Amino acid sequence: MYLPPEAQNRLLDNIARLSAPGSRIATEQLPDMSAFSDQRSRAWLQRWRQYGLNVDGSELVWDGERSNVGEYLTTNGWRVSVHPAEELYAANGFEFPGDEAVASFGSFDYLIAEMKA
């Protein structure tokens, strides 16, 4: 989510080129990047500041069209599985934060991919 489309695909291509069969990669994916740049980001800024992080998320992310990472990896030799954040929180014994700041992003997922042999 931090890279423009060409840089994202180039990074994934370089990782694939350097990966042996069985290698794994994991990343997060957010369906709505505009949450970082509109009024919803204020809730995140407040939350981050209470933990001592004074960063404006809109300055970090690329809010534009790009390849879907899961589809890109699948078409380039990876076996991909996507897991909703709530599922992974529960699987690791954590309670998913259901506050307004988290809800403002809608669903977000974590992707795990393994290079096919």
Description:
With 117 residues, the protein is α+β, with helices and mostly antiparallel strands. It has one domain (5-107). Helix content is 35%, strand content 17%. It contains 5 helices and 3 strands; from the N terminus they run αβααβααβ. The protein has helices spanning 5-18, 41-50, 69-74, 85-91, 100-103; strands at residues 24-29, 78-84, 109-115. It has a 3-stranded antiparallel sheet with strand order 1-3-2. It is globular. The mean pLDDT is 85.
Identify the overall geometry. Answer: globular
In DSSP terms, counting alpha (H) and pi (I) runs of 4 or more, how many helices?
5
Low-pLDDT segments: none
Radius of gyration, taken over Cα atoms and rounded to an integer in Å: 16 Å
Main beta sheet strand tally, sense and closure: 3 strands, antiparallel
Q: Beta-sheet strand percentage?
A: 15-25%
Percentage of residues assigned to helices? 25-40%
The count of DSSP E runs of length 2 or more, i.e. the number of strands, is 3
For the record, the count of structural domains works out to 1
Q: How far from one another are the termini? A: 28 Å
